[in-house]
Amino acid sequence: MYVQIFKLTVCFILIQINYRGRIEHRIQQLTEILMKELQISPERSIRGGPRAARRAVTQLIRLGRSAQACELFLKNRSTLSKYSLRQVKIEGNTALYVKKLCELFFNTMAETCQEFIKAFPDHFGCHAGKWTYCGEQCFICAYHDNFSKYDVISFKCK
User: Fold this and answer.
1) How much helix, strand and coil, in percent to the nearest 5, is found in the chain?
2) Domain range spanning residue 33?
3) Torsion sign over Cα 47, 50, 52, 54
4) pLDDT higher than threshold 60 for residue 101
5) Using one digit for the tens of pLDDT, what is the confidence trace for 54-96?
6) pTM for this structure?
7) What is residue 65's DSSP assignment?
8) Cα angle vertex 96, ends 90, 100, to 5°?
9) How many domains does the structure of the chain reveal?
10) Nearest Cα residue to 120 out of 67, 78, 75
């Protein structure tokens, strides 16, 4: 009798290990797909917007990958920000050009922070990453090609 119970217990443990391995494999596959969805590569067009990124982030968080979700979300937003800054055309008036760049940059930063709060409402550990991202983006913006061509500091706010 004890031998049968032991055999059943061993069999149950082996089945459990087998299913656990399958589940982990599926989680890994899903994580890779979601991470690719958040990555923007040169051959892929920029599409989806913040809501699509938020869906992928939500799924990564549910899979227990909140740190990866945070990092990929901020990289995604950084790429979108750089792309949108490059799209601003230089016009005759330098002050108008710099004003457009600044408006675009800070509106994008504000939108990124709002989307971050929506995507990571209960993950306060990720918020440090958001502030690091904001600091890095301000540094990049100050020394970006679009801004460094002009002495932005000499422009007076009206």
Assistant:
1) 80, 0, 20
2) 2-154
3) positive
4) yes
5) 888 888 888 888 888 888 888 888 888 888 888 888 777 888 8
6) 0.69
7) -
8) 75
9) 1
10) 67
